Amino acid sequence: MALQSDFFPFYVTVDVVVLTLREDVLHVLLVERGSKPYLGELALPGGFVQPTEDLEPAALRELREETGISLRPRYLEQLSSYGAPDRDPRHRTISIAYLAVLPRLPEPTAGTDARAAGWYSLEEVADRALAFDHRDILEDGLERARAKLEYTSLATAFCDPEFTVAQLRRVYEAVWGRPLDPGNFHRKVLASPGFVEPTGRVRSGGRGRPSQLYRAGEAAVLHPPVLR
Predict the structure, then answer these.
(1) Of 40, 112, 193, 195, which residue is most buried, by most CB within 10 angstroms?
(2) How far apart are CA 44 and CA 15, in angstroms?
(3) 228 CB contacts (<8 Å, ≥6 apart)?
(4) pLDDT tens-digit profile of 44-83?
(5) Cα gap 212→228, rounded to integer Å
(6) Packing angle between helix 165-176 and helix 134-151, nearest 10 degrees?
(7) How far apart are CA 138 and CA 30, in angstroms?
(8) d(Cα 102, Cα 7) in Å, to the nearest integer?
(9) Own/partner pairs for 170-175, CB < 8 Å, 24+ apart?
């Protein structure tokens, strides 16, 4: 028999920040809401946790149902929690946000209560309102992704199996949102053991000296990090 409680009831939701590079431009996965509140506005994929669900399975399910994109649990990491009293006009709601930063993700297909789903460059959504507090969640996700490039080898996942340091630099520039000094970046990359390994081959780009080709090294965590 259920016990009466003096505690105010809370609802729990999950929201997912999914980031990828498309033609060397950082994009975020957003849906257009098909129901109130914020009908027709852009939002992160997400929704309510079901009574028998744990948080991470709920995040994966909502992502799949609203966008058609299925991810393995290991690709998600918990970002933060959000619980401002007025964040959802319907209920007192706590949201647990997750982050996924992955290459080569497919085109989304809208489902359930999402009217549309798509990849949006940061420039496209810079001046657009996002539902709920999703702008804050997105900004936190971007900062986490930018930090991950400093201390992990994540950037190599967005390159071909063999790549030049210039191609790796473009990944950093896209995620960090600013140009980097080529020489300084090159020194930082080669100063971090296990980050990249030379293949012994070069790529000719026309004018100038051929560029040395590298592959991803064995290091998952960078020591020293490649700092902004």
Answers:
(1) 195
(2) 6
(3) 146, 150, 176
(4) 999 999 999 999 999 999 999 999 999 999 999 999 999 9
(5) 24
(6) 150
(7) 10
(8) 40
(9) 170/24, 171/21, 171/24, 172/226, 174/21, 174/24, 174/25, 174/26, 175/19, 175/21, 175/26, 175/145, 175/146, 175/149
Is the pLDDT at 114 greater than 90? The verdict is: yes
Report the distance separating Cα 206 and Cα 18, nearest Å.
37
Domains for the chain: give ranges and CATH numbers: 11-144 (3.90.79.10), 154-216 (1.10.10.10)
Cβ burial, residue 149 (10 Å; 0-12/13-18/19+): buried
Alpha carbons 51 and 56: distance in angstroms, whole number: 13
Tokens of 182: 């080529």
User: How many CA atoms, within 13 angstroms, populate the side-chain half-sphere of residue 178?
Assistant: 6
pLDDT tens by residue, 19-40: 999 999 999 999 999 999 999 9
Distance CA 41, CA 27 (A): 18
Whether 7 has a pLDDT exceeding 90, the answer reads no
CA distance 138 to 135: 5
